[in-house]
Design goal:
By secondary structure, the chain is mostly helical. It folds into two domains: 3-135 and 156-184; 203-385, Growth Hormone, Chain: A, CATH 1.20.1250. It has 17 helices and no strands. The chain starts with a helix and ends in a 16-residue tail after the last helix.
């Protein structure tokens, strides 16, 4: 394992712990600070908007600024967020620092940090079959560390503690950024070149991928874990203890699926793994509201967890393999942002649909995700990855 990979994995684990604590405590801390629901919503909206803005900024300028500098700047911004939270600063200042894109509303984020980490993992000189192994480990580390952070977040909410955690993580992360080797950077672009953007040659491919990923993410928003927990309680009277144990088991199975995905991809390829592990998981999802008992529904959710996440490391590796080295930052930023923007609409639509039938969110999510898989296969099955002909490495 190279130094770049070790540093990225350590940084991801550190940040996931912080995001786990934040996801659990931030809302309670904002409420305790006297913010009205509308004001809390504005802060959370600023966090989402910041992730989108920072990702798109990286798409345009990330490689020109330098990946290590941009990575360190994001961690410095995270430390600033911690200072603002700990000091109990006014709403406008909290919203302002949230716009940096360093915070996240999710335990596992898909914002600017992920964009940089994807391209740094992909640019370390290995064929894409090796890269997907790294992405599998990367996502497994994020899942485990995020769960640990969420457990820490069950302690009594305290803005000084949360702010202090973010300050420490931001400071250590910024120091780790400068431990990254020079090999994570791209070669300096010639004057007037479009490197660091999405040139005309790759733009159609990246646009199609982003559109498809946005559809998949929107469908996934219909069945976020918070909604599934609500539905299990409404449909079967499941207690929070049963739901918590089920979700813990789901997390373990998802972690194992991240680690298994590279093995499957090594045998059948990246795109077949993305599509043909995802379709069965979609069918299992659609079947959940059709079974008559809680144990049967839990069994289907656990079976789905064995397959549903295998497309994540393979998808990340596929995007990196599909575009030239100088365009990977832009491609990662655009495809990640497309997923991030559409996902919040899913829970709202699920809430509207349940008045017409409790099964509808599951059925629509399963059908839409299956349509995404079929469209992805039809669009890209004839596309030969450049990395199938040469190593996925940056030519110096």
């Amino acid at each position: 394992m190279t130094r770049a990979v070790r540093v990225v994995l350590a940084s991801q684990a550190l940040r996931a712990v912080g995001y786990g604590v934040t996801a659990v405590q931030l809302g309670a801390i904002l409420r305790a600070g006297g913010l009205a629901p509308v004001e809390v919503g504005l802060v959370l909206a600023a966090i989402v908007a910041g992730s989108v803005t920072a990702s798109l900024t990286l798409a345009q300028w990330g490689d020109r600024i330098g990946r290590r500098r941009a990575y360190a700047a994001l961690y410095a911004a995270l430390a600033c967020c911690g200072v603002v939270i700990a000091s109990g600063a006014p709403l406008w200042l909290l919203a302002l620092v949230a716009m940096t894109g360093a915070l996240s509303t999710e335990v596992i984020e898909s914002g600017p940090f992920t964009t940089l980490e994807q391209v740094m993992l992909a640019g370390t000189g290995t064929h894409h079959k090796g890269i997907v192994r790294r992405f599998g480990l990367y996502n497994a580390v994020a899942t485990v560390a995020g769960a640990a952070g969420a457990l820490l977040g069950t302690l009594p909410p305290d803005r000084l503690v949360l702010g202090g955690v973010l300050v420490v993580i931001g400071t250590v992360g910024a120091l780790l950024a400068f431990e990254l080797p020079a090999t994570v950077e791209v070669s300096a672009p010639p004057p007037g070149s479009a490197q660091g953007r999405t040139p005309a040659g790759s733009r159609p491919v990246v646009t199609r991928l982003a559109a498809l990923f946005a559809v998949d993410s929107l469908a996934g928003g219909f069945i976020v874990q918070a909604y599934v927990a609500y539905w299990l309680g409404l449909r079967f009277g499941a207690t929070t203890q049963i739901i918590g144990i089920t979700f813990a088991a789901v997390g373990v199975l998802q972690t194992l699926s991240f680690l298994a995905a590279p093995i499957v991809a090594g045998r059948i390829g990246l795109l077949p793994t993305m599509v043909f592990t995802h379709i069965p998981s979609n069918l299992l999802l659609a079947a959940v509201p059709l079974v008559p008992t809680l144990p049967a529904a839990m069994g289907l959710l656990l079976a789905r967890a064995c397959l549903s996440q295998m497309d994540i490391p393979t998808r990340q590796a596929y995007v990196m393999a599909l575009v030239p080295p100088g365009e990977r930052t832009a491609a990662a930023a655009v495809t990640n942002t497309a997923r991030y923007v559409t996902r919040p609409a899913g829970p709202a639509l699920a809430g509207l649909l349940q008045s017409f039938g409790l099964a509808l969110p599951f059925l629509i999510a399963g059908a839409t995700k299956t349509g995404y898989d079929l469209a992805l296969w039809q669009t890209f099955r004839q596309v030969r990855l450049p990395a199938d002909r040469e190593p996925l490495a940056e030519r110096k």
